[in-house]
Specification:
Layout (H helix, E strand, L loop, with lengths): L1 E12 L2 E7 L8 E2 L11 H13 L9 E10 L4 E10 L12 E7 L12 H9 L3 E9 L3 E10 L3
Parallel strand pairs: 1-5, 4-7
Antiparallel strand pairs: 1-2, 2-3, 2-6, 4-5, 7-8
The protein binds the ligand Nc1[nH]c(=O)nc2c1ncn2[C@H]1C[C@H](O)[C@@H](COP(=O)(O)OP(=O)(O)OP(=O)(O)O)O1.
Subcellular location: Nucleus
Family: Belongs to the Nudix hydrolase family.
Catalytic activity: N(6)-methyl-dATP + H2O = N(6)-methyl-dAMP + diphosphate + H(+); 8-oxo-dATP + H2O = 8-oxo-dAMP + diphosphate + H(+); 2-oxo-ATP + H2O = 2-oxo-AMP + diphosphate + H(+); 2-oxo-dATP + H2O = 2-oxo-dAMP + diphosphate + H(+)
Length: about 160
Amino acid sequence: MSRKVLTLVLIRKPNEVLLGYKKRGFGSNKWNGFGGKVEDNESICEAAIRELREESGLVVSPANLQQVGMINFEFVGDPIILEVHVFTSAMYEGQHFETEEMMPKWFKLQDIPFHEMWADDRLWFPLFLSGKKFQGYFLFQGHDVILKHTLNTVEHF
Ligand SMILES: Nc1[nH]c(=O)nc2c1ncn2[C@H]1C[C@H](O)[C@@H](COP(=O)(O)OP(=O)(O)OP(=O)(O)O)O1
C-alpha cells in the first residue's frame, strides 16, 4: 500500500459554502471542495492554498486556514490510499471564477447537493458544518458505493 497526500478546501460564509463542479479528472461531474495533490516542494497547507487559488481564483492566507478533517480513502483493487487533508476558511480575497477544471458556486447550507457529491460527504459534512474536527476512513467499491467506514471527532490535528 502506498499513500497519496491530497488537500480539500471548503470556503464558508455563515450560511453558505463554496463548492466547485469538477469538469475533468478524478471525481469529475461531482460538486466538491477545491484541492489536489501535494507536490514534493511544498507543505500540505501551501498545497491547499495553491490548489484553491488555481481551481477557484480565491486567495486565503495561511493564518486563516484551519484544518478540520483528515480522511483516508481506499478503493477496492487500488493499492494507493488517498490521504485527504480537509481545511476551511471564512476569510478569503478575490472573486471566484470558472477554470478549466472547476465551476465554483455558493450553496446555502440547506441546499448542499449531496446527491451529486462523493457519497462520503453526506456523512462528514454535518460534523464540518457544526464546527467539529474529524478523522475518517472510507472503503469504496468503484466511485459510488461505500463498503465500510469509520468516522470520529478529534480535538485537534
Ligand atoms: N471520496 C472523496 N470525497 C471528497 O469529498 N473529496 C475527495 C474524495 N476523493 C478525493 N477527493 C478530493 C481530494 C482532492 O481535492 C480531489 C482530487 O484531486 P485532484 O484534483 O488532484 O485529482 P485529479 O486527478 O483531477 O488531479 P490533476 O489531474 O493533477 O488535477 O478530490
